[in-house]
Specification:
The protein has helices at residues 42-47, 79-84, 87-90, 158-167, 188-200; strands at residues 3-8, 11-16, 19-25, 30-33, 54-57, 74-77, 95-98, 104-106, 111-116, 125-129, 134-136, 145-148, 174-176, 183-185, 206-211, 214-220, 225-229. It is of the alpha+beta class. The N and C termini lie far apart (36 Å). Bound molecules: zinc ion.
Amino acid sequence: MADVVRIDENTWRFEDGFVRFFLLEGDEKAAMIDSGVNCPNALEMAKELTEKPVILINTHGDGDHTSGTSSFSRIFIHPADYTKCEVDKRYPETEMEEIKDGDVIDLGNRPLRIIHIPGHTSGSVAILDVVKRALFAGDSVQKGHIYMFGEKREPEKYEASLDKLISMNDEYDVIYASHDEYVLPKDYVSKVKESWKQVESGDAPFEMIDLFGNKVRSYTTENCGFYMAE
Ligand SMILES: [Zn+2]
């Protein structure tokens, strides 16, 4: 059961151990952004906070962001992650509602814009809370370690995705992250990019570690970390 913390009058974060997810309420409906690692009852938790109908939007399909999926009949998710991250296999009862770059989901005077940012996963998206000027970046922008090894990742697309977020940084003031510190200043995207370039150019030190049976390079930079294939 995650701890619920109110961010403002109609926004909450759920602290679910090492990961977090969010609830945003508009005038007509509410949206949960991700559903944690250990919260199969995510929808019930949302219903204790809002009387509006609740939809589920996923920043991506990794298992630590999808635990409440089966409490919803459908999930708004990028199709690449629905299949590549095997959300379809893990939650066969829950249907996919496809989202793509530029889509706007309006909760009622609270439009949410979808920004496709492949890299961490092929179907990773950031969600711009247009009126509140907040960016929900999933795992793609954070202070912790960002997973970049394995078949569902597309590291070659990551830098362009960060550039996309940087190019629109006059549209948000804060970034909400799924791991480590929950709120980051908007210039943090540039910091993550700086670290990524150090890793890519071979300038960042790393150590070999074992992660769930995979031997990976663990990079720890000033701004964030990365787990990379050997
Ligand atoms: Zn994650």
